[in-house]
Amino acid sequence: MLVASLIVLAVAAVIGTVAALVVTRRPASTAGPSRRVSGLFYAGTVFVVVVIGLAIPFLLMNENAADAERNTPIDVRLTEAQSAGRQLFIANCSTCHTLAASNSVGTTGPNLDKLRPQAALVENAILLGRARGNGNMPVGLLLGEDAKHVADYVAAVAGR
Predict the structure, then answer these.
(1) How far apart are CA 20 and CA 22, in angstroms?
(2) Could you give the CA distance from residue 25 to residue 35 in angstroms, rounded to a whole number?
(3) Are 82 and 158 a contacting pair, CB within 8 Å?
(4) Cα dihedral sign for 7, 13, 19, 24?
(5) Topology of 80-157 in CATH?
(6) What is the spatial distance between Cα 65 and Cα 71, in angstroms, rounded to a whole number?
(7) Where in 1-125 does DSSP place strands (E)?
(8) What is the pLDDT of residues 60-116, one digit of tens each?
(9) Strand, helix or coil at 130?
(10) Mean residue pLDDT across the chain
(11) In a 3-state reduction of DSSP, which class is residue 69?
(12) What b/e string do you get for 123-153 counting C-beta neighbours within 10 Å, with b at 16 or more?
């Protein structure tokens, strides 16, 4: 996935460079570059730099999520809803909470493997937030079915 994404990024950079070169090519009869051509070259260069600057972090985050999915250290069969909860946990909770099943080692929130909470407690914390410990868990971090899926996932895998 990362290699394919980097190839697409490289192709975009080459296309941007070629476009910039074509735009800046001037006829032999002109003595200097026009302001329009200089502006287009500048705009093309800025575009390529912005695309690369936005694409690299996005690609790395996607690769990290894929690695976490492949390297699950537990042998628990997850339901479809729990699998969805796992993805939501990785995206929203793993930076603060420790949970071996998601390869997360957060230090702000409680270690869920040690706490081994029931689904109802997790869902309550997600919906109402918490103001204890090292940091504050925001209210309504996830809502509805998303909160339930994460709660069911954590209850199924915590401490296993």
Answers:
(1) 5
(2) 13
(3) no
(4) negative
(5) Cytochrome Bc1 Complex; Chain D, domain 2 (1.10.760)
(6) 10
(7) 98-99, 104-105
(8) 666 655 555 544 555 678 899 999 999 999 999 998 999 999 889 988 888 999 999
(9) strand
(10) 79
(11) helix
(12) bebbbeeeeeeeeebeeebbeeebbbbbbbb
**Burial group, residue 89, by CB count within 10 angstroms (0-12, 13-18, 19+):** buried
Distance CA 44, CA 66 (A): 32
Q: Which residue has the tokens 């929130």?
A: 109
Q: How far apart are CA 118 and CA 76, in angstroms?
A: 16
Contact present, 119 and 152 (Cβ < 8 Å): yes
d(CA 136, CA 133): 7
Q: Tell me the whole-structure pTM to 2 decimals.
A: 0.54
136 phi, psi to nearest 5 deg: -105, 130
| 147-159 pLDDT, tens digit each | 999 999 999 999 8
**Tokens matching residue 127:** 């919906």
Rounded to 5°, angle at Cα 128 from 68 and 81: 40
DSSP H/E element including 157: helix 144-157
